Amino acid sequence: MSTTKHARIGEEVWKSRVDKVNAELVTLTYGSIVQQLCKDLEGDYTEVNKQLDKMGYNIGLRLIEDFLAKTNMGRCNGFRDTAESIAKIGFKIFLNITPTVTNWSADNKSFSLVFEENPLADFVELPDDGRAQNELWYSNILCGVLRGALEMVQMQVEAHFASDVLRGNDSTEMRVELIRIIDDELPPGDE
Amino acid sequence: MSFYFAIIGTRDNPLYTYEFGTSKSGGDGVARFREDQRSMNQFILHSSLDMVEEVQWTNRDLYLKTVDRFNNLMVSGFVTGGNIKFLLLHDQKAEDPIRQFFTEVHEAYVKTLMNPFYEVDMRIVSVVFDQRVRAAARKYL
């Protein structure tokens, strides 16, 4: 599938088949989740990242079903096709943003998503405690979502943020790496 | 013209202060308070809080105009919906520019408040907010 086709599908589904909610509601809800996690875990940001990733994972497991139902997409043609679908359709219909797919590795197994805008992080400034800037990945839930969603379609991936404008970096970049294609395995003892 | 601006929280605690001079008609943006008067500014400003609390119930607008006077100095006030008070000490009358200044600061304050890591009545240390206040001061006063 060509990339323009992806963009078109994303646009179409976004316009016709998606319920919209107020952006600030999303931003503030997500913000209070992160803030509460930071409080509950007493500023252990590594643990906060982990929890966010887990929450995202659980969202991803379900979201992929919704995604497939709304878009009527078939199989992807390789990992590059998957990447385009994620960026131009997935992010488009759920967050109305289109991150740029770039920085492909030579073996075509990992790529970067560069976010020009990030509705989760509007208004946010990280706490000025000298650690959050280096430890907290504020939008880490997105990594979990991708991991969960792709796992349901037989792709085990590893996703993490490489930079974030909230930390003072120039761009927000997420690195996604394909670990392996999960083969259909028969449950043990079930011939 | 010189100004002294302060944001006061709901428990009468200061959240943010900024002293500056006019940037209009060739001003360089530096406050020119007399040295012996400078330390008085905070007192004058905070003593006007009682007046603000009186006026805020008789006025429908958030902008309360000039609420208090002390010799040649005036204090203008602005109360946000959440009862955060903006106070500006100034030595010349300038109703409209001050209104515009307050409105812009209010906008910046709301943005700050939307940050999940900021809580009401917390001191405002955000650099972004500071820059926006400075820009508003340069633009209108």
UniProtKB/TrEMBL annotation, chain A:
Fetch the Pfam families from UniProt: TRAPP
* Keywords associated with the record: Endoplasmic reticulum, ER-Golgi transport, Golgi apparatus, Transport
Main localization of the protein? endoplasmic reticulum
Keyword Endoplasmic reticulum on entry: yes
Question: Where is it found, in Gene Ontology cellular component terms?
Answer: endoplasmic reticulum; Golgi apparatus; TRAPP complex
Regarding protein family, the annotation reads: Belongs to the TRAPP small subunits family. BET3 subfamily.
What's the name of the protein? Trafficking protein particle complex subunit BET3
Automatic annotation (TrEMBL), chain B:
Q: Which GO terms describe its biological process?
A: endoplasmic reticulum to Golgi vesicle-mediated transport
Matching entries from Gene3D superfamilies are given as: 3.30.450.70
CDD domains on file: TRAPPC2_sedlin
Which is a Gene Ontology cellular component entry for this protein? cytoplasm
Question: Per the record, a Pfam family?
Answer: Sedlin_N
The domain of life is Eukaryota
List, alphabetically, the PANTHER family matched.
TRAFFICKING PROTEIN PARTICLE COMPLEX SUBUNIT 2 (PTHR12403)
Q: What is this protein called?
A: Sedlin
Per the UniProt record, the lineage of the source organism begins with: Eukaryota, Fungi, Dikarya, Ascomycota, Pezizomycotina
